[in-house]
Amino acid sequence: MQKNKFILGLAAALVLTTSSMLLPSNNAQAAQKETIHVNYSSIYDSKGQFLKSYPGVESTTDVKNATFTTNGKIKKINHKFCYSIGKGGYLPISDVVSLNNLGTLNLSKNTRVYNKYGKKLTYFAGQSASLKKGMPVNYAGKVKPLKNADGKKYFLLNKDYTFSYLPYRKIQGQYYYSLGHGGYIKASNVGMIDQLQVCVHSVTARADKNQSVFDDHGKITKEVLKSGQKITLDRYADTPELLGHSEDGDDDSCFYRIRGTNKFVILETDEVSGNLLPFTRFMHVRATQDANEYDNLGRIFVRHFNEVVKQGTTNNSNPSATVTAGSATQAQTVAKTETPQIKQGEDVAVTRELYLWVPAEQKAELFYELRDNDYASDITRLFIKASDFKYNNFGPQLKPENTVASAKEANNGLASTSDKKSLGDLIAQAPTIEASDKYRLSNERSSYDYYLKQAKQVYDSDIATPEDVSQALTGLQDAQNKLNGAKVVVQDLQHITAQEADKIVTLVYTSIQGKYIGKIPQVTFNQDRTELDLIDNGVKQKLNITDYAEQAK
Fold first, then answer.
1. How many CA atoms lie within 13 Å of 77's alpha carbon, on the beta-carbon side?
2. Rounded Cα gap, residues 267 and 398, in angstroms
């Protein structure tokens, strides 16, 4: 959710003994050799174009996990501030995650260096004490582990969802991190420490327009925040962590929980100042080794696919592949296979814990079902062995929903056509359901869409088991039964009351749920409540009142 920005940075080398702290300078005499490390970056020339080549780098447009030496000089190139790394190459300062192999923090705001009395300094270590957003700076002290973060104002969230913190000092009511040599910077202006987010327990924000409020499953409620209303937030949730799947248009926004509630609002990430702890409805596990993915029959998942390559290209991954004759463009289609794996240390979300019979081992083993499936067009569901993963301290822990004995008895038999008949009949009702007010005006619409998609995948799958069919049928039937859409009943359509108008506006918001992720439009009546408008980015669209209201009989 973070955007990559090219921002002026700090070339600071701090040795916690007798050396002085070096700040970036265009003065050649002040420049000294420093080591910088990037996880992801690109190398540019002095005109801001991608450098054609650089020693030791395979691709200058896709530099990964690399270390360079710089003289500390900064050059502004096409509004981007970069380090000179020699050989005509320049790296954006904002991409630097480590400086001189020492502990490094990155500034989230412009800041000044202060002394131990909380007074702003004009100069520090012989150079300007005014530091710009994005600068990497070496800190003094050591990061320490935490059992929990309740007693800390600022703390770090580790990759395994445990906590740590860099000791800070309170000066004149403000919290500061030490740079050593009597220099301090405000902790509130630091975004990252050693590539970990600096978190706080809550932040305040204001709704910049009327904001819909969602429940903890991402479903719209009747509550609406008024423009300018102040709210306190204590958690954030990326869309998949709340809905269970991604939505188009959610790259720059996410859900934020209102403190003390299970209610959420959608805000642009740059509208919220401060990093909050994440929220999820799903158990997360981390791979303890490279791990295979499995289908619902307990077999290692092997993906089969076709790839179009140039005529004559050798198929190294599958030498025995079938090759289709090339077209006039000298292309050929090569049949390939791959066995996807989850790499050691990778974090994944899971939705179920159950035993599956593994034919290759002739025994039942405990599996997790993956929430996210990158191969949905090839297979309905994917599973991972529980023994290859450990709980990652994030999300509610699951329990097995069956036993070894029941998995052995079921033996993952395949569903027959007759097994799927009831599911097919229910799927066939979808066009009628989707055209109804019960669906169109329901706040359970996204749930129905999700279970309908799952049901169709199970119905079309040639490896679905009776259990798969049963669960798909139950899920879709329950979702259909929960559809609760209905028009607002008013006493007189020609004289709608203010209270009736509020109900109609809320219903319109319900009907557009999921269509405006991150940019909820304004819905409003005119003064005499005879016209209903939807205003999206300044564009007004007239709505038919009778699509949302009906007169009492």
1. 21
2. 30
Strands 383-385 and 389-391 turn out to be unpaired
Kindly give the pairing relationship between strand 190-193 and strand 104-107: antiparallel
Does domain 418-481 correspond to CATH entry 3.30.1340? no
> Quick one: tokens of 149?
């973060």
DSSP secondary structure letters along 461-522: -SS--HHHHHHHHHHHHHHHHT----PEEES-TTS--HHHHHHHHHHHHHHTTTTSTT-PPE
User: Tokens 């990778």 — which residue?
Assistant: 346
Q: What is the CATH number that goes with domain 203-278?
A: 2.30.30
Residue with structure tokens 């669906």?
439
C-beta separation of 102 from 141 below 8 A: no
Report, in angstroms and rounded to the nearest whole number, the Rg of the chain calculated over CA atoms. 29
**Closest by CA position to 204, among listed 256, 158, 169:** 256
Burial class for 181, CB neighbours closer than 10 Å (0-12, 13-18, 19+): middle
Count the alpha carbons within 13 Å of 226 in the hemisphere toward its beta carbon. 2
Q: Report d(CA 444, CA 177) in Å as an integer.
A: 47
Task: Report whether CATH 3.10.20.890 matches the domain 488-551.
Answer: yes
Give CA–CA dist 350/294, Å, rounded.
13
On whether the CB atoms of residues 283 and 350 are closer than 8 A, the answer is yes
Structure tokens at 186: 């405000």
Domain with CATH 2.30.30 in the chain: 203-278
Structure tokens at 339: 């066995």
Matching residue, tokens 């409805």: 281
| Per-residue tokens: 141 | 């002290």
The C-alpha atoms of residue 503 and residue 508 are separated, in whole angstroms, by 9
Answer whether residue 425 shows pLDDT above 90. Answer: yes
- Token output for 150: 């309740």
- Per-residue pLDDT reduced to its tens digit, 225-238: 888 899 999 999 98
pLDDT digits (tens, 9 = 90+) for 314-339: 444 444 444 444 444 455 667 778 88
Q: Which of 454, 323, 314, 299 is nearest to 376 (CA)?
A: 454
Please state, in angstroms and rounded to a whole number, the distance separating the CA atoms of residues 127 and 144.
30
pLDDT at 377 over 70: no
Structure tokens belonging to residue 169:
């000092």
With tokens 């036993």, the residue in question is 403
> What residue ranges of the chain are covered by domains with CATH 3.10.20.890?
488-551
- Euclidean distance between the first and final Cα of the chain, in Å? 50
| CATH 1.20.5 boundaries in the chain | 418-481
Beta bridge mates, 197: 192
pTM beyond 0.85, yes or no: no
CA distance 139 to 177: 7
Amino acid at 94: S
DSSP string, 409-461: HHTTPPPPTGGGHHHHHHHHTHHHHHTSHHHHT-TTHHHHHHHHHHHHHHHH-
DSSP state of 18: S
Helix (H, G, I), strand (E, B) or coil at 354: strand
pLDDT in tens, 27-84: 434 456 889 999 989 999 999 999 999 999 999 999 999 999 988 777 888 888 888 9
